[in-house]
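[agent] plan:
  1. take the single chain provided in the ticket
  2. run structure prediction with default settings
  3. attach structure tokens to the ticket
  4. add a short note for the reviewer (M.T.)
[agent] executing step 1
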Amino acid sequence: MKISHHPHARIGQGFTLIELMLTIAIFGILAAVAIPAYQNHLKKEKFAEVIAASATAKSAVEACMQHLNAAAGCDGGSNGIPADLTANAGNRVAAVRTKNGVVTVVPQEKDGILATDTYVLTPVPGNPIQWSSAGSGCRATALCK
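[agent] step 2 finished; step 3 output follows
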């Protein structure tokens, strides 16, 4: 007795070209979404050093504003504010400056972070003092809030 095979029966045990192409296309789409998101996450992590560089100046400005009852005069190197750092202030920080209470941190240009991604903090009088980063260049690139 002769056994006939169905015309659509698979003889080999493997994947068809269509199945392989579909799998590769799905991986390509996932990679296209995941890789840029991961790169942006890494940039934000590296930018955290720039944000942290503002902490000392912020605390000093808050004390200065309490003492002077104004932000005017709260400048780097006076009234308890640390002197401005203008040359290699850190691994990722090029400069930290304070003028009339406004703290500006300029990042080093490296790892996709540009000098235009400045972190600018403006004190908003009140009790407690609030800080606004509205004038920061890093807001346009979503590296800071």
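[agent] step 4 note for reviewer: DSSP finds two helices and four strands in the chain.
[agent] ticket updated
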